[in-house]
Amino acid sequence: MWKLAEVGFREEKSSARLQADLKAAGFRIDKGVDGMPTAFIATAGSGGPVIALLAEYDALPGLSQAAVPEQQAVPGSAAGHACGHNLLGAASVSAAIALKEWLAKSGTPGTVRLYGTPAEEGGFAKAFLARDGLFRDVDVALSWHPSDRNSASQGQMLSVINGKFHFTGVPSHAAAAPERGRSALDGVEVMNVAVNYLREHVPQEARIHYTITNGGDQPNIVPANAESFYYARHYDPAVTLDIWDRIKNAAQGAALATGTKVSVELIGGSYGTLPNYTLGKIADRYLRQTGGFSYSAQETAYAQKITASLPQGGRESGGPETVADFVEGSRTPASSDVGDVSWVTPTLQISTATWVPGTPPHSWQAASASGTSIGVKGALLAAETLALTGAELFRSPEEIAAAKAEFDKARGPNYHYRAMVGDQKPALDYTRK
């Protein structure tokens, strides 16, 4: 999975590999679900509660990295697993297979379902699956994410919305006839300036970030087309949507100022996670029972080099040997489309130390560790913890009932889930250049 490193909605080989392992283990496979060719659902067992596991497998563009402690791209590869989704998908599949085998051997009634969800890094596949009711009969969802620490703490993540702004101008010779041109790149840059001034006037917890995905062809042509790619985030989805409207206003103002036109392509969005402490406490118990892990001499030497490459030399606390204290009510300034799942069914998310302590996600150091034995050890710990948690839930309907009661109380009596992605179809080509 790490070597394949395919970006969102293009994970053909990665998705096929996971499906092959599940089919060989006796799962029934539904391919290309909900209009997404690399999405799938694998089901085993029958009757009883339905417990879902979530698998991701998309890589990040521009972060190709060899499994070495120095920054070094893999020849011929443009993407890398800098968020560890190779480990995430493999461990979730392993946990699903373990649960399927346990159900059969123990004679316990129950259904285990593995959701293969592409394009977490911007395409928000889970939000479309949640919107279209594919989690409707799920009793509990179990998930995990690579990290630099072992933790079953449950907290809130940021809601997020993203999209591309397409500016259209008038081409002309930039030296001989600049007055006849209207620069689409000027529109992008004026918009960026306006949004950067906007930052002073949004809540402190908000996040706005962008990249210019098309700046024109060459300097002597007034750019007729240009494009920027924006994200907006906040813990409150209503605030996120308000910020997004203000970003769109900045784009319209920039178009007016530069004599260009602009259109907005909404790609997707997701809610922040709704924590479920009932599930978190069960997983915490098994994470501690399974225990952390230690580095070999070779892994220690690798980790020391990675630590030396990190800003401020990494972080001293935490690490693979320990399990962090269980915390309720924490906030994480990141986003995941697991958030939408958590608003339609009780959802667990844990983390394990697949990376060297202090490693930030979306870094070459994370991509490197995700291809090493350190990453595999962390993924195995996650798979074992999820499988043990799932087995207890299958045996204990009262715990599922308690998780559902907490879920219903947290959402409130009149809550109705409405996806931030609206009624649009998945943006299957959002990673295009």
UniProtKB/TrEMBL annotation:
Keyword entries, A-Z: Hydrolase
Single GO term (MF): dipeptidase activity
Cross-referenced SUPFAM superfamilies: Bacterial exopeptidase dimerisation domain, Zn-dependent exopeptidases
Presence of keyword Hydrolase: yes
This protein's name: Peptidase M20 dimerisation domain-containing protein
Organism classification: Bacteria, Pseudomonadati, Pseudomonadota, Alphaproteobacteria, Sphingomonadales
BP GO terms, sorted: folic acid catabolic process
Gene3D superfamilies referenced in this protein's UniProt entry, alphabetically: 3.30.70.360, Zn peptidases
Entry GO CC: cytoplasm
